[in-house]
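Per your request, structure below.
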């Protein structure tokens, strides 16, 4: 640094909930670190790993109080310039502390300071012929699929095999032991060899592919709006191949990888090059290694859930968001980003196309099509030539139900089973019954920490709160009056599965919900039984609605459609329509005609009528009218200030103070009316896990003006009276008002 007098200053984003950068003195005998490099610094007497954001000659902090940077971890930025600017923008847009945003972008091992270097990886290779091996396996579905994957791809590493089953390692061990699979340690890339090239596309599919391929190298957003089974995934696969041949990286966001092992199998069989998946089944090392393959530019295709949108991709040339309407794309705590919205930013930064795909697009995306921000690509027919399922409402007002099932539905199930097909019963409640009521005094078994009934779980003999996780033994007598006349009220998957087992004693049933799939490997096992058709009756929650292909399934029964009709949230109706059509889309995907029976006490409801008679477009149009009138998204813009505390009054009092500040601030800026304040009010379920919760809603017709108001609030909120007595958060573009 020659004759320089004052040491330079670096501004570091430190992982702490304070929304600013911290100045450190640079006094090491090395070049000053540039933005995106990690450094170790002392922060409140602890050593933390931060990321350099900028540097300067001076600081407003007195020189004596400036601490030096401890050490530099990276020799080049681990987060390149375009990721840094995106993350800095996101921190300001979502009003979340920059240090936490940058930390969220790094996998744990790298966040903790691990070197950004690729290690040797285990590479698993098939050492025996598949046709010799398979007959020796018996009924071991996970082993079979591991072998199939290895046969498809030649060899594979842990990140690939782990998409098959959470139990993959245990299942592979005996195969390694007897020499059917060999393990080598290697620094070379896991390279996939496509096994097949897929069908030639014609008609709408070909047109959609052509539109995407011809826009490679340009910034453009497409909504691939295609009915379930219309061949969207096929379009993705061929578009990915086109981008790869141009030497570009492709980012594919999917809702939940463990739920759709079929999808990853299809990707491995069809894509060549270095294919990396980022999902929750990876351990810290596997995750950071996969991340580095992507960030260092080695991976050709990165398939991941929400957080993969934050991974650096130096050669990014195409972004795909599958099931773009899915709620899981929104992070619900901490840094509350929406992966679909950040995906659009990635496309803009990389100057490449972004494809949002869905059979039931979000109202946001439909709106963007209407105002010509997105171009719409439609696939109106099923790719296999199968007919769309027929939807019918079953009026259950005057009818006696057996455990929630109407006679008509049970008859239909019997018919489809007789014909050798599968049937699926969808009920979006897990457990046996959502409430336990006393017949004598009317009291319910409630959660002691939430404003909610406990759910009866009969098989395990427990009461569980589905909100806070509290549980206790099923009581034999009422806690208030001692009566033993306790009624299990309502239905969950467990109860419906039991009823079906009684009605169809010779039929195997697969129940798929969070309880039945909690154990490692249980989900894969249930899905296997469903996909192969061994289980001919399927009962489950929305876990069953997502993306699955059950070849023999022809009948879907929806038990509780009415709940969505009268939901309290502005998105309830949209979500009901999406869920019904997604689960309906599981029916009749091959040759036989699919049938969907929707039980309802509101058969004349115009929204239900429109949905089943005219389809999603018409439904969305009517439902969006309601949102337009009320100024809800996608027409207006919303931010939610949440507050909670053990004390029942504090959250509301604090939000009163916030509302007061905002009111005065709007007035002072002559901006009254630019942002509407709704509330504060108690949250829809006021008490959760022993804490009282309140909400203040900000509604604005201009995103920019809402943002200005939020920025004013964010700069003072910590100092407002009562801020220390509550937990608070700001949620921009909230997924719900819960
Ligand atoms: P989506 O992603 O829209 O649900 P998929 O891409 O999974 O649809 O396609 C549904 C089914 O149709 C799959 O079994 C797929 O292999 C098949 N398929 C897709 N495109 C074609 C095509 N062009 N020709 C024949 N079969 C196709
Ligand atoms: Zn009682
Ligand atoms: Zn609870």
């Amino acid at each position: 640094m020659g004759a320089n007098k004052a040491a330079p200053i670096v501004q570091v984003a430190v992982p702490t909930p304070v929304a600013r950068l911290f100045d450190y003195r640079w006094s090491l005998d090395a070049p000053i670190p540039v933005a995106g490099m990690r450094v170790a610094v002392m922060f409140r007497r602890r050593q933390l790993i931060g990321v350099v954001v900028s540097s300067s000659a001076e600081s407003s902090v007195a020189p004596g109080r400036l601490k030096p940077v401890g050490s530099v971890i990276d020799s080049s930025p681990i987060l390149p310039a375009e990721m840094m600017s995106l993350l800095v923008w996101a921190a300001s847009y979502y009003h979340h502390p920059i240090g936490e945003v940058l930390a969220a972008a790094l996998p744990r091992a790298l966040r903790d300071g691990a070197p950004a270097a690729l290690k040797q990886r285990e590479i698993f290779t098939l050492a025996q012929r598949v046709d010799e091996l398979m007959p020796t396996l018996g009924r071991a579905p996970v082993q079979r699929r591991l072998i199939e994957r290895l046969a498809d791809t030649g060899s594979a590493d842990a990140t690939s095999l782990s998409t098959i089953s959470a139990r993959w390692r245990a299942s592979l061990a005996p195969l390694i032991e007897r020499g059917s699979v060999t393990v080598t340690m290697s620094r070379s890339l896991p390279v996939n060899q496509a096994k097949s090239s897929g069908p030639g596309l014609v008609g709408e599919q070909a047109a959609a592919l052509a539109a995407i391929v011809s826009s490679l190298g340009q910034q453009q957003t497409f909504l691939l709006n295609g009915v379930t089974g219309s061949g969207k995934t096929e379009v993705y696969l061929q578009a990915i191949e086109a981008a790869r041949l141009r030497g570009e990286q492709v980012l594919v966001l999917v809702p939940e990888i463990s739920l759709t092992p079929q999808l990853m199998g299809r990707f491995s069989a069809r894509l060549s090059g270095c294919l990396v998946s980022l999902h929750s089944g990876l351990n810290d090392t596997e995750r950071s290694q996969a991340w580095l393959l992507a960030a260092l530019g080695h991976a050709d295709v990165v398939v991941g859930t929400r957080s993969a949108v934050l991974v650096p991709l130096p050669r990014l040339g195409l972004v795909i968001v599958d099931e773009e309407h899915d709620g899981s794309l929104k992070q619900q705590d901490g840094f509350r980003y929406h992966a679909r919205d950040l995906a659009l930013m990635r496309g803009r930064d990389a100057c490449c196309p972004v494809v949002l795909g869905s059979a039931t697009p979000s109202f946001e995306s439909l709106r963007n099509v209407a105002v010509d921000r997105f171009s719409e690509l439609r696939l109106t027919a099923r790719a296999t030539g199968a007919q769309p399922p027929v939807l019918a409402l079953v009026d259950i007002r005057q009818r006696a139900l057996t455990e929630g099932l109407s006679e008509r539905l049970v008859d239909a199930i019997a018919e489809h089973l007789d014909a050798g097909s599968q049937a699926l019963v969808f009920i979006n409640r897990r457990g046996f019954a959502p409430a336990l009521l006393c017949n004598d005094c009317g009291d319910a078994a409630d959660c002691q920490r939430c404003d909610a009934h406990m759910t009866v779980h009969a098989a395990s003999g427990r009461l569980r709160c589905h909100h806070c996780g509290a549980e206790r033994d099923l009581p034999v007598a009422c806690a208030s009056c001692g009566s033993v006349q306790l009624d299990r009220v309502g239905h969950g998957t467990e109860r419906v599965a039991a009823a079906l087992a009684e009605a169809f004693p010779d039929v195997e049933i697969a129940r798929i919900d969070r309880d039945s799939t909690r154990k490692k490997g249980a989900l894969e096992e249930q899905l296997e039984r469903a996909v192969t058709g061994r289980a001919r009756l399927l009962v489950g929650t929305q876990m069953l609605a997502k993306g699955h292909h059950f070849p023999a399934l022809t009948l879907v029964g929806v038990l509780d459609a009415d709940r969505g009709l009268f939901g309290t949230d502005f998105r309830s109706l949209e979500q009901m329509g999406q869920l019904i059509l997604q689960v309906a889309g599981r029916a009749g995907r091959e040759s036989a005609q699919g049938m969907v029976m929707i039980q309802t006490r509101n058969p004349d409801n115009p929204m239900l009528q429109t949905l089943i008679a005219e389809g999603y477009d018409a439904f969305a149009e009517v439902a969006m009218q309601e949102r337009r009138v009320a100024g809800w998204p996608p027409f207006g813009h919303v931010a939610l200030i949440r507050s909670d505390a053990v004390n029942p009054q504090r959250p509301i009092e604090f939000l009163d103070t916030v509302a007061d500040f905002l009111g005065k601030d709007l007035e002072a800026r002559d901006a009254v009316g630019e942002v509407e304040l709704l509330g504060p009010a108690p949250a829809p379920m006021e008490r959760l896990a022993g804490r009282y919760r309140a909400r203040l809603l900000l509604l604005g017709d201009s995103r920019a003006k809402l943002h200005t108001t939020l920025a004013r609030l964010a700069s003072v909120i910590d100092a407002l009276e009562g801020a220390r007595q509550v937990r608070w958060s700001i949620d921009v573009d909230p997924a719900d008002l819960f």
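The chain has five domains: 4-111, 121-186, 203-379, 390-433+490-627, 637-732.

Regards,
D.
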